[in-house]
């Protein structure tokens, strides 16, 4: 896992030309997923309150955080997302760092954010599909994750 963190930091530096700022922690699979959740929410150029709340709830649930801790993590993820590499490279960090069930859960979380504002736009669906492929998940896995997301409160 330490290798992935170092690799991610190097990718960020190489692709963006930015140093990873001291105010940001070294990224790991949890922060990569959080940044992808933010990316999906922002992909339609409309970052809605419903999407932010959903991200906070997901980060709290997935990482065992309070809602305040999740909001702080989301704020960090928002900063990381601005400096993040292309979606596929970002998703590969998750793929390399977690098992199949966790990748499926990550895809479900992305669908929850994409569907949270009640409006399905092609930009959000495109990012979720790109992540699905980068995570090494099948169309059947994608359908399962989307169905679970639709059934989630």
Describe the structure.
- The protein has 153 residues and is mostly helical.
- It has one domain: TerB-like.
- It has eight helices and no strands.
- It has helices at residues 2-16, 29-42, 49-63, 67-83, 87-97, 100-115, 122-134, 139-151.
- The longest helix has 17 residues, at 67-83.
- The chain starts with a helix and ends with a helix.
- Mean pLDDT is 84; it is low at 1-8.
Radius of gyration over all CA atoms, rounded: 14 Å
Secondary structural class: mainly alpha
Q: Spell out the helices and strands N to C.
A: HHHHHHHH
Tell me, briefly, the overall form: globular
Report the CATH architecture.
Orthogonal Bundle
Low-confidence spans: 1-8
Number of helical stretches of at least 4 residues: 8
Q: CA-to-CA gap between the ends? A: 32 Å
Can you give the mean pLDDT?
Answer: 84
Strand elements, count: 0
> Strand percentage, roughly?
under 5%
Any idea what the CATH superfamily is called? TerB-like
CATH topology: TerB-like
Number of domains: 1
The largest pleated sheet is described as:
none
Q: What is the helical fraction, as a range of percent? A: over 70%
**CATH level-1 class:** Mainly Alpha
Structure summary:
The chain has helices spanning 2-16, 29-42, 49-63, 67-83, 87-97, 100-115, 122-134, 139-151.
Q: Could you give the topology of this structure?
A:
Blueprint: H1 2-16, H2 29-42, H3 49-63, H4 67-83, H5 87-97, H6 100-115, H7 122-134, H8 139-151
Domain Co-chaperone DjlA N-terminal: 31-144
Pfam family, one: TerB
Protein name: Tellurite resistance protein TerB
